[in-house]
Design a protein that fits this description.
Blueprint lengths: L2 H6 L8 H17 L13 E2 L11 E5 L5 E3 L2 E3 L4 H9 L6 E6 L5 H13 L4 E4 L2 E2 L5
Parallel strand pairs: 1-7, 2-5, 5-6
Antiparallel strand pairs: 2-3, 3-4
Length: 137
């Protein structure tokens, strides 16, 4: 130490280098793990040529799996109780819109039955989620 420090007392500066090191490590860990946190139900979507529809965070997504299981967002529900559940969800909403995501191997009849229940629940707009179709060269 030099003479000036001894005369004035202890050095009262905070060493921020360890703090910055820890924050950079946490940032790297977050950046690596964030893509792995994708949530949802895994279905193989059919391919179709259509423009993208942006679904906001407040929009409901109804998913039909290959085994004809229905999920509202990530909550399972039976087809028989779908109308009542949707009516409860949308009773205080002004936007009557839902997105349908069905596995391409689900029978057409089951998807139509599900769409009929959605319509009976009073949903005005139904968006169907698909994968973009790959163009042939």
């Amino acid at each position: 130490m030099n003479n000036q420090t001894k005369e004035k007392g202890l050095l009262s500066e905070i060493n921020v280098t360890p703090f910055v090191d820890v924050m950079l490590v946490l940032l790297i860990i977050f950046m690596v793990t964030a893509p792995m946190l994708q949530q949802g139900i895994d279905v193989d979507l059919p391919k179709a040529a259509a423009k993208d529809i942006s679904a906001g965070n407040e929009k409901l997504v109804l998913t039909i799996t290959q085994k004809e299981k229905i999920f509202i967002d990530e909550h399972p529900i039976e087809l028989s109780g779908l109308k009542e559940r949707l009516e409860k969800i949308y009773q205080n909403r002004t936007d009557k819109e839902i997105f349908l995501k069905a596995d391409e191997r689900v029978s057409y009849g089951f998807v139509v039955k599900t769409m009929a229940e959605i319509k009976r629940a009073g949903i005005e707009r139904l968006g169907i989620i698909t994968k973009p179709q790959e163009e042939k060269r």
